[in-house]
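User: Need the bound-state model for FE2/S2 (inorganic) cluster:
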Amino acid sequence: MKRCKVTFQPVNQEIYVSPGITVKDAINLAGFEFDFPCGGRGKCGKCRLQIPTGAVAPTPAEQELLDEESLAKDFRLACLARITGDTVVELPYVTTPKHQILIAAVEKQIRLEPHLNKIYLEMDPPDLQHQQPDWEHLRDSTEQAGLTAGDKPALELLRALPQTLRAANWRVTVLADQEKIWGVEPLNTTDRLLGIAFDIGTTTVVGYLLDLRTGQELAAVSALNPQTRYGADVITRIAFASHEEGGLSELHEAIISELNGLIGEAAGQAGMQREDIYTVSVVGNTTMHHLFLGINPGNLALAPYIPVLQQPMVLTARELGLQVNPAGMIYALPNIAGYVGADTVGVLLATDLDWSEGIKLAIDIGTNGEIVLGSKERLVACSTAAGPAFEGSQISGGMRGTIGAIDHVRFDDGLKFTVIGGGRAQGICGSGLLDAVAGLLQQGIMDFRGRILSPDQLTAEAERYADRSVKLESGVKAFVLATAPETVDGRPIMITQGDIRELQLAKGAIAAGIQVLLERLGCDLDAVAEVLLAGAFGNYLDPHSACAIGLIPQALESRVRPVGNAAGAGAKAALLSRSEYRRAGMIADFTEYVELSAYPNFSHLFASCLNFPLG
Ligand code: FES
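Assistant: Bound-state model below.
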């Protein structure tokens, strides 16, 4: 069969593919990072790109989602356009695949207590007077040195043991946890004991390489979650895992392969080997957790949204194919419920919410919004489907918080915005959208119901923005945030009435979730001592804007504190300390999950939270 040459511009990278595959498949084959927010189902119209050579006739869905001018210029949807001959694909943004990922995290003091310890032994060789078998000899020497050897040696360890002991002249390092010996290494390797903590987000994966003897962070690495090519949100991935043949293993292998890449990268940055890494801790939402373990998350998409397991999970790195030391162990943190996962447990662990004297509210807005309220007395948690608007996937000019995104907007002295990485804008990310909508509200360009006002309805103060308040051909009202000359592709970036509606739904869901938790805990806003905003989005958003639109109650504005990637900090804590890991299990048991869809009166509460505050 004749293959087709696909050339990706502007990087001029060529690959060869079989005819008939989609441009999306070609992009994935070439290894580019590219967003397919609807999972490549031809629904969202966001995978728009230009195919200057080889574009085939548009499909009916493309005709519907793309305007005539774009079609005439050979713009197509990557997930629908098929390759039938040699093709040139113009990539709009993947040439700078640097994602703004939050690495910094809350400071937390913990006592170092690694899951695995090393001890160096200088054993006496056996002789005719001392004929102790190798295992018993090693076991007794280990216990004499203060580590537990256990009585169930792994067969693999026994098979290698005679050679290891003799080749090293009975000078070996033993690797053991509280129950058994996991490995024996020749000579003294006690100066190399590393671990890596992973926070597997729906969109990004962050890894922290730590020296388990000192707690020092040696490297921090990050990457786009490769599963994004199967869909931006967890629901699309659950569907792929459940309904596509081999879908589950494809998603599982994609994340394992990415983690293996990050492990190598982190070890390289620190000047170490991947074999020097002995423990791995993992947090992620429940879907990411299941996919990491290769467990089908199918039931998470079906009421009553039951996960396969909640409890912490310890397994060997070999079982999952993680390329660390062959004796390496994995510590997956527990989940709380189907949509409140190990990442939330990580947030609670890092912020010590379960030990807090006063009542605190923790909000982690990622692809979903997880909310936890309480103190050492009681913790209640819920999850809202808040993410898509904040992550840009259902916003007309929306994009993730990466190079080219408008991330902050100000109206104080005329309309001004900043773009991540500088230069012209390509779209708007969640924090920019929040600022923009808060500004529209405060400037009187939009009313409290979220309606963009026509130029003739504007107050004298807002009149200077009259030419930005437009009506699109479809009749939909919009506000021009960035004019054509200010954008990468020469098309204005708008905040449409539909975008505002999406934001209202998202902020309404979170605001209603907070109300439900207050009700469930039986307290009011005065009782809330602090609001902890976790996650990348929580760190970048302007708390004033979040309170101005009612995402967070206005009364709490002065009590908001961003805590960075607290989920990742929790994963680090669980890596460095057995006690913290055990505590994670307790937090999961302790936290009461509230299912919003089953909460009496939730739809009424939600509806009442859709409007914006009056001032
Ligand atoms: S239309 Fe292509 S990813 Fe949605």
